[in-house]
Design brief:
The protein has about 475 residues and is an alpha/beta fold. Helices cover about 45% and strands about 15% of the residues. It starts with a strand and ends with a strand.
Length: about 475
Amino acid sequence: MTLKVYNSLTRQEEEFVPLHEGRVGIYVCGPTVYEDAHLGHGKTYVNFDIIVRYLRYLGYKVRYVQNITDVGHLLDSGEDRILKGVARERVEPMELVETYTRRYFEDMDALNVLRPDISPRASGHIPEQIELVKTLVEKGYAYEVNGSVYFDVAKWPEYGKLSGRRVEELMEGARVEVNPEKRHPADFALWRRAEPEHIMRWLSLWGWGFPGWHAECSAMSTKYLGQPFDIHGGGMENKFPHHDCEIAQSEAAAGVPFCRYWLHNGMLMIKGEEMHKSLGNFVTLREAWERYSPLAIRFFILGGHYRSPLDFSETALQAAGKGLERLYGTVQAVRERLLSTDSGTDLTDRSFMAKLAEHKARFLEAMDDDFNTATAIGALFDLNREVNTLLDSEEEISRETLVAINDLYRELGGDILGVIPEEIAKGAAGLEEPLIELLIETREKLREARKWDLADEIRARMAELGIALEDRPEGARWRISRQ
């Protein structure tokens, strides 16, 4: 099966064929670094991390570009988000963005999101944005008024082709600011005039100012990926106006298509609303980590298809954590068995190796279907049940079979999904090993004192927490329950 992706531009699933054989260029809209990242950001960047991981797994050489917006991203009120953060914390703009850029990458590292190959900053690419605006003015697609420059959507009939919005509808004033400088309400700013008190400003052909939010992504994506390039990603909320504006200004300036495949991820929902900082209904990633491990959060995100909305709830996160514990318990058991097994290939269960191949095929089939991680995880749990049955049987398992099982978990759960680390210590899913050992010691002392009821109660309560005990002649052994 070949990889198919849903292209938001054509509104249909298509076979993925890169512009250059064996190479893929992907650009994803990055964060505006004025506050800590929240769970919604986590969903977006975990979703695109999976896409990049899987493309590399298929053998493509991927150049992944994700920008850092550190200037020019305005709120609906016209206030610059960076300057809002500056006023809040009473620091220099570059001090603010440096702090939150570092924290953003720390948060992504914790989620096991691979770093982009290039993370260009908007403030470091002002000349490229000025050049883009200059080209649009020279070609008649943009006009200058009092030091600000606007794109003239009336000159670009295809404006809105990604979101499906018609210029006629936009001219009625829906979701666009009323600005007397504009020729039409739908026109958008390419360059904004900066008043003398505006901290972040640069000298341009039109005086002191700063770029409009949309200009940075066009300038930086094409600088590092060329035009056209393969994949542009971002949240559903960015289709309009951000991505529609990117397409219009990029194609008007260059005269060729901007991007071949548009991929959009669904929003994270909380109590029926989209999670947004502007709504005040967000939970930062660092707040979430006070209760859940980062990999449990990643696993929760992957439990839904990237294009679908995902409902955040305590129950859903708890279920994800328990599901991850079941996987860890099995992987742990396989690796422990490997340490004590030295038998050769003569005992290998060939039929079980065939079953591994079937589970892998189902997993990859799901990933080839527009990166369907939800179905892929289902295939991984089917594999998990099969492995548990084998481990719990009385059959002797060869080292070759155990190695094959471990390699498959590493490949599917580690390399592709990024949720199974190379080293899983006991307690990695949130259980504390010393406390578990203490409970076992206490239970043994109760058994020696013939206080069977209390000993059984400890065993039962541990089972409720997902810790299974096995009484053996040499002493009790424990494992995270795989049931």
